Amino acid sequence: MYHCRKYPNFDDVRDIFWTHQNDIKLFNTFSIVFVLNSTYKTNKYRLSLLEFVGVTSTKLTFSITFVYMMSEKEDNIIWALVRCRDLLHSKDISPKVIVTDRDNSLMNVVDIVFLEASTLLCECHIERNVTTKCKMGCKVKDLKSTEVMKTVIFACEDIVNSDTEQAYIDNCNKLKVVCNKFPMFLEYVEITILGPMKEKVVKCHAYGEYYNKQS
User: Fold this and answer.
1) Do 34 and 135 fall into the same domain?
2) Which of 95, 121, 147 corresponds to the end of one domain?
3) Spatial contact of 180 and 165, defined as CB atoms under 8 Å apart
4) 10 and 100 share a domain?
5) Of 81, 72, 80, 67, which Cα lies nearest the Cα of 105?
6) 49: which of 37, 42, 83, 127 is 20 to 30 A away, CA to CA?
7) C-alpha to C-alpha distance for 193 and 153, rounded to whole angstroms
8) Do residues 169 and 189 both lie within one domain?
9) Which domain holds residue 47?
C-alpha cells in the first residue's frame, strides 16, 4: 500500500508513503506507542526518510511505515502523519504516546494530528547529544577526562530518571556541583533538559503530561 503527492501543475513526485498490510494489522493491534525517526539524506536520492516504528505489548518493535520527503517542513510531516493516522480503523485506538528526536518540526506537528497523544523525546538521542557535548566540554588536566565524563553523564541520566519532583530537584543540584568547572556544558543541559523540554524528557514530568492528556 502506498500514497504519493505531486507538486501542483508538475509531474514530479513530492512525497512517497508506503507500508505493508501486515504492518497495518500490527499497528491496529499495538497502537498505544510509536516512535518517529528521521534519517537525513543517506539514500541514493538524497531525500529525508521518516520511519514510523511501533511497539508491541512484549516490547518488541516493528515497522509501521516509511515516508520519503522532499523537505522536512511542517507541511510534509503533517501529510505523513495524516496518512499514518488513516491506517487506524477506529479513533478509539489512536496512539497515546509518540516518541521523537529533538526535531522542532516533528514536535510541533504531532500535537496537531494526534491530539490525545503525549510527545516524549527519545532518551537515546538525548544521551548521544549529551555525550557529544560532554566530550567537547570536559577536557581537564588534573583528572582523566573519561572518568569526569562518566560522572557527568551519570548525573544527567539521574535527572532524566527522576521519578519524583524532589528527586528531580536533588539531581539537578547534584549536576550543578559536578559541572562546577564546566559552565558551558551545564548551560547546554539546562536548555535541553532542565528548561522547557523537561516535560518530554524527565520521567516525573513526562508522566504528569501523559495523565493530564488522558484526563
Assistant:
1) no
2) 121
3) no
4) yes
5) 72
6) 127
7) 13
8) yes
9) 2-121
Measure the CA–CA gap between 1 and 146, rounded to whole angstroms: 49
Specify the CATH number for the domain of residue 40.
3.30.420
> Are 65 and 101 in the same domain?
yes
Sole residue written with cell 515516508:
67
Residue 203 has pLDDT above 70, yes or no: yes
List the helix and strand counts (H, then E) for the chain.
9, 7
Alpha-carbon span 47 to 38, nearest angstrom: 11
**E strands in 110-154:** 118-121
Mean pLDDT check: name the lowest of 149-153, 161-165, 172-176: 149-153
In a domain, 207, yes or no: no
| Residue count of the chain | 215
Mean pLDDT of the chain, nearest integer: 84
The pTM of this model reads: 0.79
State the Cα–Cα distance between residues 170 and 174, nearest whole angstrom. 6
- Is-contact 80 67, C-beta < 8 A? yes
Lowest mean pLDDT among 42-46, 68-72, 138-142, 202-206: 138-142
